[in-house]
Amino acid sequence: MMKGCGGTGAAAWRLVRNTGACNYSFKASTERSEPRSTPNKSPVKNGRCQPQIRKRKMNGKRIISIFSSYLLFLVFALKLQAQVLPPMQPEQDACGALTLCNNEFFTPFSYTGPGSNAFEVDNNGGFNQRLENNSVWFRLKVATAGNIVFTITPVNPLEDYDFTVVNATGLKCPYSTSKLADAIIRFNGNCNGNCSEAPIYPEGKIGLNYVSTDLTTEEGINGKPFLKFIEAKAGDEYLVLVDNFSGSPAGFSLSFSGSTATFEQPESGVDNVTPICAAGDDYFTTMQVKLKSPVLCSSLASDGSDFTLGQMNPAIIKASGVNCNTGSNAYTHELLLTLGGQLVLGKAYTLNIKTGTDGNSLLDLCGNSNGFATGKDFTVKLPYQINISKDTVVCTGGSVQLNGVLQGEGNVRVRWQPNTYLNNNTIANPLVTPLEDIEYVVTLAPSGLPTVCQTKETVKVKVLKGFDIKTQDTVLCKPGPVLISLDGNAEFKYKWAPTLYLDGTSGMKNTTTPLADISYTITASYPGCKDSSQTINLSLVKWPELLNNDTVVCVGAPVNMRIAGGAGFTHSWTPATYLDNPLLLMPVARPLQSTGYRFTASQAGCKDSVQTVTIKVEEPAKVALGELKLCSGDAITLKPVVSPDSYSKYRYKWLPEGVFSRNDIKNPVFRPTKDTTVTLEVSTEAGCLSAITARATLLPLPVPDAGADIESSGTAPVRLNGRVDNITESFSWAASPFLSDRLILDPVVSGEGIFNFVLLAESKDGCKATDTVNVRIIKALQIPNAFSPNGDGINDTWIITGLGIYPLAEITIVNRWGQTVYTSKNNYRPWTGIHNGQLLPAGTYYYLIKTGNEKSEVISGSITLVR
Question: What is residue 46's predicted lDDT score, i.e. its pLDDT?
Answer without folding.
Answer: 32
